[in-house]
Design brief:
Order of helices and strands: HHHH
Shape: globular
Strand content: under 5%
Radius of gyration: 12 Å
């Protein structure tokens, strides 16, 4: 089962990593993109806690990078939130 919103988030984060100007941001975004690609393919997908941690990390990177990178990250966070609205619990 592919979780389309998580797959979309991973693709957007990969694009953000390509556009990032700082090596640290590139590495962190690439790692996040890989994690979302993995989440997208998993049977259960991540829980609310894990998604909240991803959002915190992504927000931090977006604030540091700004511009196009922040825009792509914001789109990715929107996709994560769309997925999160389908997760039972909190």
């Amino acid at each position: 089962m592919v979780h389309e919103n998580l797959q979309r988030a991973g693709e957007l984060l990969e694009a953000a990593a390509d556009a990032a100007t700082h090596e640290d941001a590139t590495e962190r975004l690439s790692k996040q993109a890989a994690e979302f690609a993995s989440h997208a393919e998993s049977e259960r997908g991540p829980d609310h806690g894990r998604l909240a941690r991803h959002e915190r990390i992504l927000t931090e990177i977006a604030e540091a990078e700004g511009g196009t990178v922040a825009s792509k990250i914001d789109e990715a966070i929107d996709a994560v939130r769309a997925y999160r609205s389908t997760v039972d619990g909190v």
